[in-house]
Amino acid sequence: MTTTKYIFVTGGVTSSLGKGIIAASLAKLLQAQGYRTTIQKLDPYINVDPGTLNPYEHGECYVTDDGAETDLDLGHYERFLNVPTSQSNNVTTGRIYQSVIDKERRGEFLGKTVQVIPHITDEIKHRVQILGQTGDYDIVITEIGGTVGDIESLPYIEAVRQLKWDLGENNAIVIHLTLVPYLSAAGELKTKPTQHSVKTLMESGVMADVLVCRTEHELPEDLRIKLAKFCNVRQEAVIQSIDASTIYDVPNLMLEQGLDKVVLKKLALESSTPDLTQWNQFLERHKNPTGEVTIGLIGKYVELQDSYKSILEAFIHAGAENEVKVKIESIHSESLTEKSAAKKLKHLDGALVAPGFGERGIEGKIEAVRYVRENNIPFLGICLGMQMAVIEYARNVLKLADANSTEMDENTPNPVIDLMESQKTITDKGGTMRLGAWDCNLVDGSIAEEVYQSSNIQERHRHRYEFNNKYKQQIEEAGMKATGLNPETGLVEIVEIPKHNWFVGVQYHPEYKSTVANPHPLFVAFVKAALNFKIDKNSVSMAQN
Ligand code: GLN
Question: Which of 231, 280, 459, 505 is most exposed, with the fewest beta carbons within 10 Å of its own?
Answer without folding.
Answer: 280
